[in-house]
Specification:
Shape: globular
Distance between the termini: 43 Å
Number of helices: 9
Organism: Zoogloea oryzae
Protein name: Crp/Fnr family transcriptional regulator
Number of strands: 8
Pfam families: HTH_Crp_2
Helix content: 40-55%
Keywords: DNA-binding, Transcription, Transcription regulation
CATH class of the largest domain: Mainly Beta
CATH topology of the largest domain: Jelly Rolls
CATH superfamily of the largest domain: Jelly Rolls
Radius of gyration: 18 Å
Length: 243
């Protein structure tokens, strides 16, 4: 297994001593595509800090349809709701982009929360960012066309994969975006015809990042602003001199 360093933004926001203590209890792992990390309503057994991967959170609608409600990469953590004393996973979570992550057992994580005010503060601000992004996603799903939503999702995936190339099948995208597979095919064909992406058997290459941003809805930029504003206070608190 490759060596993994703390390249997760939540971990990097912690003071060095508290970050080091938490990392002592983290295990480096490599996540596989479509691996299920959590099920809705089941106890949170582990907390995951993505390094170079993406984890999609999926809500079940009417017991049969799926809809993405969040994407977690190196800007966040899966299982962060433990900071609110919520012990059950609110959604199913599965690996969208395989790669490296850090994993810590839930009981050990709770003990670190009790010892680390900085960790508690950072996670609460991250959850605030997630709430804003969830509201943005709800509006995006209701009002924006599939092509713009797909462009947004591809940008979000690229940000978390740290690569212009990644693998996403039509079926997987249809499930997480809550549309028919034919809708994904048409949207991907349009983006490819505009030379924004190359798409072959699930292998996607972003060929024109600026063009893809222009094709995406404003929700992509709004998500980034929401995260930056929510996380600004912990960053500012970290740099203030201590009495």
């Amino acid at each position: 297994m490759p060596s993994i360093v703390a390249a997760n933004r939540l971990l990097e926001a912690l003071p060095a001593t508290e970050r080091g203590r938490l990392l002592d209890h983290c295990e480096p792992v490599v996540l596989r595509f479509a691996e299920i990390l959590a099920e809705a309503g089941e106890p949170i057994r582990e907390v995951w800090f993505p390094i170079r991967c993406a984890i999609v959170q999926v809500a079940r609608i009417d017991g049969h349809a799926n809809l993405e409600v969040g994407l977690v990469g190196d800007e966040g953590a899966l299982g962060a709701s433990l900071v609110l004393d919520v012990a059950e996973s609110p959604q199913q979570a599965l690996v969208q982009e395989p790669g490296e992550a850090l994993r810590i057992e839930a009981g050990r994580f709770r003990r670190e929360l009790a010892r680390s005010p900085a960790l508690t503060r950072v996670l609460r601000h991250y959850i605030h960012a997630q709430m804003g992004q969830l509201a943005q996603t709800a509006g995006c799903t209701r009002f924006h066309v599939v092509e713009a939503r797909l462009a947004r999702w591809l940008l979000m995936t690229q940000d978390r994969a740290h690569s212009s190339q990644f693998h996403l099948t039509h079926e997987f995208l249809a499930n997480v975006l809550g549309v028919r597979r034919v809708g994904i095919t048409r949207a991907a064909t349009t983006l490819q015809s505009h030379r924004l992406i190359r798409y072959t058997r699930g292998d996607i290459t972003v060929t024109d990042r600026a063009g893809l941003e222009a094709a995406a809805c404003g929700c992509y930029a709004a998500d980034k602003i929401c995260y930056q504003r929510s996380m600004a206070m912990p960053a500012a608190a970290r740099t203030q001199p201590q009495p």
